[in-house]
Amino acid sequence: MKLRTRFRALRPAGMLLLCLGIILISVTSLYAQDVNITGKITGTGGTPLPGVSIQVAGTTKGASTGADGQFKLSAPTGSTLKISFIGYLSKEIKVTNANPLHITLEEDVQKLNDVVVVGYGTQKKATLTGAITTVSMAEQEGRPITATHCRVFRVYLPT
Q: What pTM did the predictor assign?
């Protein structure tokens, strides 16, 4: 009889621990749910764009599109995706559960002749400072492929 009374005293504490465990499990499943995002990025003509940069804003997570314009990325729900590609206007999209995404980038009205690609970005030709050189294909004809750097630095080596 004494054994039964001891277990009856533990019964409310056991129920309390069980309820607390269920609450903790449900709260952790709601915290920061990542969504697997897939999609395709195309230009205004419908052609797939290879090498488009997709980055989750405020993080180091990112991806780039393959040759067919397809990408796959994992990001938290509600975060923002920054999509950029040289010669096209950048776009920001909010992450939802809708999959797959089909994103169309519009061409930048700025002429690519006025844009110079430098290290980690692009600049207008007018605002760029530094040494720039161009090598035309007419200068390259009849030269070995390995001598291209000599033409850039205006070094003439005997061939």
A: 0.53
